[in-house]
Design a protein that fits this description.
The complex is a heterotrimer of chains A (293), B (316) and C (556). By secondary structure, chain A is mainly α. Helices cover 68% and strands 0% of the residues of chain A. Chain A contains eleven helices and no strands. In chain A, helix 3 (82-118) packs antiparallel against helix 4 and helix 3 runs parallel beside helix 6 (153-162). The longest helix of chain A has 37 residues, at 82-118. The two termini of chain A are 15 Å apart. The radius of gyration of chain B is 24 Å and the shape is globular. By secondary structure, chain C is of the alpha+beta class. A ten-stranded mixed β-sheet of chain C has the order 7-8-9-1-10-18-11-17-15-16. In chain C, strands 4-6-5 form a three-stranded antiparallel β-sheet, covered by helices on one side. A three-stranded antiparallel β-sheet of chain C has the order 12-13-14, with no helix packed on it. In chain C, 55% of the residues are buried. The chains are: A mainly alpha (293), B mainly alpha (316), C alpha+beta (556). At the B-C interface, helix 2, helix 4 and helix 10 of B face helix 6, helix 12, helix 13 and strand 17 of C.
Chain lengths: 293, 316, 556
């Protein structure tokens, strides 16, 4: 369990914090952190440094191979520079992943805290709703929603969040339920603190650990989900590039221009792996029990 | 125990109802409809289209349509497809075996390879093998299944020509060998993520078990390491494995959907995409219910196994 | 296939039709010489042998040809069933189940076009051996307009009254009003057996719909759902052939995969939706394959919603048309497969107007036109006039790679003249729902076949009473309304003489080209592919299927 913080205790320098130290000692997690930082920087700054515009169609330069001529990574079927598109797509895929994680975590935490603390029929109703959503294989629900609602990046973010909040809710509910009977909560109740205060000012800070871990893994999952639905044609729509929709047309050109399929996939793998490494590292760093291993 | 089972069973029914309502609402949010496929037909007038819509019962209020659908479902009638008038049940049933074949083979591959890797990683902790296996698993979990399929097609079908690029079998050759030839790539691709999951799981379970008292005792008694591992560890991990298998079902279905697209495998996933694009609501609802059923059953089995082990519930 | 050969096919059909029409014009008789004798050789062939596998990318699922179905189901229908007449590749009407094509000359159609008498052949049999009679025709026509039956198209059939069976080989009826296209419609109306469908309580759910019985060259064999359909030869077919023993329609959901299987020889004929343009060059060089470019009936265009304020101004429509680099789209994106056109009429049709003003791609002139019409660039670079920005959506179905590429290309070109075209695509079922039929779109990129059974009557598309969004009953999704065109279309539907009709429809094309309710991109060509050893394969763009005459196919 995370270290319980009573309100008002003095905080030591963050880099000396035990959790941070443990995280940094986790090699893979650091690798992941470095990778994702580099990737994010590349996506944020790269398009400004490259000479091409990601939307610039040039029918005379279609299907150029990577490392030949002017285009570092070649061009796509409409002659657009693949490197620029890849980085612009990264912006969208990463942003969609990040914001849907934010939404999902907020919603999931809210539901989880309320359900875990209130218990009883509130817990039953909320948890059964969670289970209801979980009973859909994710992709099925995602696709149906994507067809029903307009596929703008905002909508896609909302839809992915809609299919990701449940895991967070479950984790949080379990944690909160186990914390409910602890002394500091009973103390708070005796002091007459309101339920909301106890839930969000006392219990929530102590659940942050698992929430952060869940959040990191949710980003990873969200990026993958966006790739899946865009690949199937139901996600981000052209001409906006996303890593998923860049792969959408790639299968038919596989024998002539395989790099169209390989390169965006590598980018996705890199981003998702980074987040998974980080999440793993965080989980180990925050988990007291793992010290015994 | 019986009480527990009954409670969970009732909850499952409620879940199914919730799932059906959510699905129905979402589907009917979709603008357009099954008549849309005739919109470009120059010979179809608006009269024709409205007549067909009325004949299909599409202009009744939503809750009426839902109740009628639910009532018929309870009587075993899954409805008729808007596209060809076939019974939804038979349409779905015809596509299920292909998907089950895919999921089954992928599971077998995932469990067998994953278990071996996991156990070895646990018994040789911090070795090069373990390190590669761990990193490999993490990477495998991060790769989109369909991308792996595309790369596989490129390497093994287009470049090397060893494996076919799709379909369940070659026309005119329905032999078992041919079927298996076509099954290799899709099932391996689908299994990839699950190999990673199983290897990590088995590694953790083995490590856990190895730290237990009875194992230390057996070791102290001089029983060979291998026997200790195989007999006690795997034996104890059996129940959690069933739990994991149950929980993995929905993600197997999701993975199957994408794998079927890449390899044009004639299964449920393909049917789902086709029907969704054509607004063939009855079939889509049928598939949603069926996959929800599988998921709920998987979770139920997992819960039962957990309950069997948990003394609080067992003794209740 | 060389350009010369391409031109040959089109001129051939037009010349033939013209020659035949000219002969009949003098006597004011319609269609007489467009009639051929039943072209079916009467020599019984040796026992049919061999199997042909046709690949299709959409699964045929509807086997009752009278029920709503997409094009691919017609491939099966053409083999299992017969209609009263057929249109051959040259546009000549040929009797099939009928003994002759009714005309004024032979008394088949009365002078006012209202009374019809059809004489039927006496040697056709259903696959179960029962003889085909006029009762079956009566039953079919009545079933189509039966309100309880989920029928496909009822246009034309709804005008039929008082069907009388005079004898097993003669049937008469009366039309409510003269409707010239009806003869063409009948070529796509397959006859179903009364003794089977008439005997069930609910024809919508009859077992017949899963195991059809027709009079066609092939009998229903079996269906493996989601995979393929197998038909077997009908050795007592009344017409030519069949020469092959088994006809298989194999469902391959992906066009790339289908092409791969065509290349490897797994399938013998590449059916719906044929070979993609980017494979055309490679396909035509494959050994042992015959790959031809055949004009399709469909025209690809940017379809406008004329009620949108941006499109009300004809100058805008002309400028938008001038700003499309059609040549680049055809050459680069579509690999030179389709050809340019200025009209909705297929280029190989008798009614095609060849001297319409040609579009010229000129950004300079487009800019000038917009400036002169008062559309000045606003602060964001997009042109504005009277508060209306020249910005609109363009929609098509998701998943169509080539269309999406064309959209993005046009979007870029338009941006350079201050026009903002945003791309908003939907899955097919959404795109073609109310969004399309009730004219809720701004503009669409779409390929439409305007003619029904090659009849030039386009009232459903361009008549003002066909605007659904305004309460009409057709498919005039562009909300096009021109009183002169309305009048011409009404007249055309009542006129039976082909030459007179031709004059009418030439004028219609002229007016529509001027009004530009849609901006033609190109006229589609289909890339047909088959194994070279298959003989008797005749593309027929007057029908909806490449397998319209599978009865004539045989292995060399």
């Amino acid at each position: 369990m995370t270290t319980l913080t009573a309100a008002g205790a003095p905080q030591s320098a963050w880099w000396r914090n035990r959790v941070v130290r443990r995280f940094l000692g986790h090699r893979l997690a650091v690798v992941g952190l470095v990778m994702i930082t580099l990737l994010s920087l590349a996506c944020a700054l790269g398009p400004h440094l490259l000479p091409y515009d990601s939307l610039q169609i040039d029918l005379h330069a279609r299907f150029a191979s990577p490392l030949t001529g002017d285009h570092y990574l070649g061009t796509d079927p409409l002659g657009r520079d693949l490197a620029t598109r890849l980085l612009m797509a990264g912006r969208i895929s990463l942003l969609v992943g990040f914001f849907s994680m934010l939404l999902a975590t907020l919603a999931g935490t809210l539901v989880g805290v309320v359900a875990g603390y209130m218990g009883g029929w509130v817990n039953s109703v909320l948890m059964r709703t969670v289970d209801g959503f979980l009973s859909f294989p994710t992709l099925f629900l995602l696709l149906a929603l994507a067809v029903a609602l307009k596929p703008s990046p905002t909508m896609i973010t909302v839809i992915i969040a809609l299919t990701s909040w449940m895991t967070v809710a479950r984790i949080v509910a379990t944690e909160v339920a186990s914390l409910k009977e602890r002394e500091f909560v009973l103390a708070g109740r005796m002091l007459g603190l309101s339920r909301a205060h106890i839930m969000f000012r006392e219990i929530l800070p102590n659940v942050m650990g698992p929430i952060i871990v869940a959040a990191t893994l949710t980003v990873a999952r969200a990026i993958l989900l966006e790739a899946y639905i865009s690949f199937l044609g139901f996600g981000i729509q052209p001409p906006l590039p996303s890593w998923g929709n860049m792969l959408n047309g790639a299968q038919q050109y596989l024998d002539r221009s395989p790099w169209l399929a390989i390169i965006p996939g590598l980018a996705i793998a890199m981003a998702v792996t980074s987040f998974n490494f980080i999440g793993d590292g965080l989980r180990d760093a925050l988990d007291v029990r793992s010290e015994l291993k | 125990m019986v009480e527990f089972l009954l409670k969970r069973f009732m909850q499952s029914i409620v879940l199914l109802v919730i799932v059906s309502i959510i699905g129905f609402v979402v589907l009917n949010l979709i603008p357009g409809g099954p008549i849309a496929q005739y919109a470009l037909d120059s010979g179809m007038t608006q009269d024709d289209k409205e007549r067909i819509a009325a004949q299909l019962g599409l202009n009744r209020p939503l809750w009426v349509q839902y109740l009628e659908w639910a009532w018929r479902l309870l009587q075993g009638d899954w409805g008729t497809s808007f596209r060809d008038g076939n019974q939804v049940f038979s349409v779905v049933a015809r596509h299920v075996p292909a998907t089950l074949l895919l999921m089954g083979s992928a599971s077998v591959i995932a469990v067998s390879i994953g278990t071996v890797i996991g156990i070895r990683g646990a018994t040789h902790r911090h070795s090069v093998f373990d390190y590669i296996a761990t990193v490999g698993a993490m990477v495998a979990l991060s790769i989109p299944t369909f991308w792996f399929g595309l790369v596989g097609i490129y390497v093994f079908s287009l470049e090397l020509g060893w494996l076919p690029a799709g379909n369940m079998y070659t026309i005119g050759d329905g032999s078992v060998l041919n079927h298996m030839h076509h099954l290799i790539m899709p099932s391996v691709v689908l299994a990839l993520v699950h190999i990673a999951i199983w290897s990590r799981f088995m590694r953790a379970a083995t490590i856990d078990a190895m730290g237990q008292e009875f194992v230390k005792t057996a070791r102290a008694k001089g029983v060979s390491e291998r026997r200790v591992v195989m007999k006690h560890v795997v034996g104890n991990a059996l129940l959690p494995m069933i739990t994991l298998a149950g929980v993995q079902l929905p993600s197997l279905l999701t993975g199957a959907l994408v794998t079927e697209t890449v390899f044009t495998w004639p299964g449920m996933g393909r049917l789902f995409l086709d029907s969704l694009s054509n607004s063939d609501y009855p079939v889509v609802m049928g598939l949603l219910m069926f996959s929800a059923l599988l998921t709920i059953v998987g979770n139920l089995i997992a819960d039962i196994v957990v309950a069997m082990v948990d003394p609080r519930i067992r003794l209740a | 296939m060389t350009t010369d050969q391409k031109i040959l096919i089109e001129d051939h059909s037009r010349r033939d039709a013209l020659r035949l029409m000219a002969a009949s014009a003098a006597t004011g008789i319609f269609f007489t010489n467009l009639l051929g004798k039943p072209a079916h050789a009467q020599t019984r062939p040796a026992a049919p042998k061999g199997r042909v596998v046709v690949g299709v990318t959409q699964e045929p699922t509807v086997f009752n040809p009278l029920m709503p179905h997409p094009e691919v189901d017609d491939s099966v229908a053409f083999s299992v069933f017969d209609a009263l007449f057929r249109i051959d590749p040259k546009g000549v009407m040929v009797p099939n189940l009928a003994a002759e094509v009714p005309t004024e000359a032979n008394g088949g159609i009365s002078a006012d076009g209202l009374n019809w008498r059809i004489r039927l052949r006496n040697n056709a049999r259903w696959h179960d051996g029962t003889p085909f009679t006029a009762e079956d025709v009566k039953f079919t026509l009545e079933l189509i307009v039966n309100p309880k039956f989920r029928a496909w198209r009822t246009t034309g059939h709804a005008l039929v009254r008082d069907i009388k069976v005079i004898s097993p080989t003669e049937i008469t009826w009366r039309m409510e009003q003269p409707f010239a296209p009806y003869l063409s419609y009948l070529t796509e109306t397959f006859i179903v057996p009364k003794h089977i469908l008439g005997a069930v309580a609910n024809p919508n759910e009859a077992p017949f719909n899963q195991a059809p019985v027709g009079t066609g060259a092939f009998k229903w064999g079996k269906r493996v759902a989601g995979d393929h359909i197998e038909l077997t030869a009908n050795t007592s077919y009344h017409g030519e052939g069949p020469y092959i023993e088994r006809l298989v329609f194999k469902y391959i959901p992906d066009m790339t995969v289908m092409y791969t299987q065509f290349r490897s020889g797994d399938i013998d004929v590449a059916g719906q939706a044929f070979i993609t343009p980017d494979n055309y060059k490679e396909a035509s060089r494959l050994p042992d394959r015959a790959v031809t470019l055949v004009p399709a009936g469909s025209v690809e265009s940017i379809y406008l919603n004329l009620e949108r304020p941006q499109f009300r101004d004809r100058a805008v429509r002309e400028a938008l048309y001038m700003a499309i680099d059609r040549q680049a789209i055809i050459e680069a994106l579509y690999h030179g497969v389709p050809r340019l056109t200025e009209t909705f009429m297929p280029t190989q049709s008798f009614y095609y107007k060849s001297d319409l003003p040609k579009q010229e791609f000129s950004l300079a002139r487009a800019t000038k036109l917009l400036d002169q019409a008062g559309w000045k660039p606003g602060p964001d670079g997009i042109r504005v006039k009277d508060g209306v920005r020249l910005s609109f959506n363009n929609s098509t179905t998701t998943g169509n790679g080539l269309r999406e590429q064309a959209q993005q290309f046009i979007q870029q070109t338009y941006a350079s003249i201050g026009v903002e075209m945003k791309i908003l695509n939907h899955p097919a079922a959404v795109m073609w729902g109310d969004f399309w039929t009730k004219s809720q779109y701004d503009s669409a990129m779409v390929g439409i076949t305007y003619l029904i059974a090659s009849d030039p009557d386009v009232s459903l598309r361009f008549h003002s009473r066909s605007i659904v969004a305004k309460g009409g009953r057709g498919s005039n999704n562009a909300q096009y309304s021109n009183p002169e065109v309305d009048e011409l279309l009404d007249k055309g539907a009542r006129t039976f003489d082909p030459n007179a009709r031709r004059e009418i429809y030439l004028r219609v094309q002229e007016l529509i080209r001027k009004d530009l309710p849609f901006l033609p991109l190109f006229s589609s060509n289909i890339v047909y592919g088959r194994k070279a050893r298959i003989q008797g394969f005749m593309p027929n763009t007057n029908t909806r299927s490449e397998s319209w005459h599978a009865a004539g196919w045989k292995w060399a």
